[in-house]
Design goal:
Layout (H helix, E strand, L loop, with lengths): L8 H42 L2 H4 L4 H12 L8 H18 L10 E2 L8 E2 L3 H18 L4 H11 L3 H14 L3 H9 L2 H4 L4 E2 L1 H4 L4 H8 L4 E2 L4 E3 L4 H10 L1 H8 L3 E12 L2 E11 L4 E7 L7 H16 L9 E6 L4 H8 L6 E7 L2 E3 L10 H10 L1
Parallel strand pairs: 4-10, 5-11, 8-9, 9-10
Antiparallel strand pairs: 1-2, 3-10, 6-7, 7-8
Helix pairs in contact: 1-4, 4-6, 6-7, 12-13
Length: 378
């Protein structure tokens, strides 16, 4: 903050508060402007569909309507043919989720004592639940920028469930368009919530569902570069060296607590591979990384670490600690059966995408010390 002319403590605090409130109002205004703009785009797209405008006004409809709108609204810069077509696709993509039909309850079968056959009855509570879902989707649709929507339209015009998934993830994580595209390209939709776990049996609801949703399978380590015959230590070094990208891959709410995290268990020291805290789950997450195929023996060590963390780090405000084993490969059935003997919540996932360099390539590169030495000689 710039140096203020009046340095009295109360004055400085007041000015600081005003600046904070002003910036918050700017953010709210930007969100409001974005929402209003998207609502207009939605309404224009809806008109095109419901008026059957393309067939009603001929092949040159988009060219003509854009020309007329630009002439009538010269200050507007959103009426290109391409953009107006996106408005139509915008409406079509989400409309099926935002149109609640009261008669939906009529389609549910229910048996009655006085009827020979099953008859259909209206269940208003289902309509209310659907309306709640619709309202939430409508709120979310108008929360992300238009550029994000255009990307989702390009990728998922025929698969709106994927568009909704990535729309929610964008809101949840505050993704830029570049990050959104990155996660689309890493098949996040297919990976999210796919880890083999025992959460249903070891965690209370709704935490078990949320924990399952947060874990992925496989995890993409395509931000790593290592030699072909890398060892576990090299892989873990690379993960910590790219901790920001690793946290992004883990997902929202993860805070890094440390590597080789030391716990003093009575007279013995224990060192966990990686320790995180998740602010959405309000719990610690112990991560063990193995460069080999899954083995049941790995679960014993991880289960012990989870127990140690519960006893030594977890507070009354924290939920039960979760363990995550990330290995090179696994047989899902074998892994699921192996989990049944454990009462600690544990998930098992694979990793993929490590960029393997040719053997000897890394050793041919100069080290930081060598580069600094050359520079100091000049």
């Amino acid at each position: 903050m710039v140096k203020l002319i009046i340095q009295e403590k109360d004055y400085v605090a007041w000015i600081t508060s005003l600046c904070t409130r002003y910036r918050q109002s700017q953010i709210k205004a930007a969100v409001k402007v974005n929402s209003e703009k998207l609502m207009f785009y939605w309404s224009l797209g809806k008109d095109i569909v419901e008026l059957h405008a393309e067939s009603k006004w001929g092949d040159g409809f988009y060219k003509n309507v854009c020309r007329d709108l630009k002439a009538a609204l010269p200050e507007a810069n959103c009426f290109s043919e391409t953009n107006v077509k996106y408005m139509k696709y915008f409406y079509l993509l989400y409309n099926r989720y935002l149109t609640i039909r009261p008669q939906v309850g009529d389609e549910l079968p229910d048996k009655t004592e006085n009827a020979e056959n099953e008859r259909l009855v209206i269940r208003p509570q289902l309509g209310e639940k659907l309306q709640d879902v619709s309202n939430q989707i409508m709120h979310d649709v108008f929360m992300i920028p238009w550029g994000h929507h255009k990307l989702l339209i390009d990728k998922f015009r025929d698969t709106p469930e994927k568009a909704l998934f990535f729309m929610r993830k964008t809101i949840e994580n505050g993704w830029s368009r570049a990050l959104l595209l990155n996660f689309i390209d890493t098949d996040l939709y297919e990976r999210q919530g796919k880890a083999v776990t025992n959460f249903a049996a070891t965690l209370p609801q709704p935490m078990s569902d949320l924990a399952q949703e947060i874990l992925k399978d496989p995890y993409s380590f395509d931000f790593l570069e290592t030699s072909e015959h890398y060892r576990e230590k090299e892989l873990k070094d690379a993960l910590i060296g790219n901790i920001t990208k690793f946290l992004i891959e883990l997902g929202s709410g993860f805070a890094y607590m440390g590597r080789e995290y030391r716990l003093q268990v009575n007279t013995k020291e224990q060192f966990m591979d990686l320790l995180f805290y998740n602010t959405r789950l309000h719990c610690y997450l112990v991560v063990e990384v193995k460069t080999t195929e899954f083995e049941p023996a790995y679960l014993g060590q991880l289960s012990a670490y989870v127990s140690f963390t519960n006893h030594l780090l977890k507070t009354e405000q924290d939920n039960p600690t979760i363990g995550l084993l990330i290995c090179k490969s696994k047989d899902n059935v074998f892994a699921q059966y192996s989990l049944e003997g454990y009462n600690q919540p544990i998930g098992i996932s694979e990793f993929e995408g490590v960029n393997v360099l040719p053997e000897g390539f890394r050793s041919s590169l100069p080290t930081i010390e060598e580069i600094e030495s050359k520079l100091s000689d000049k």
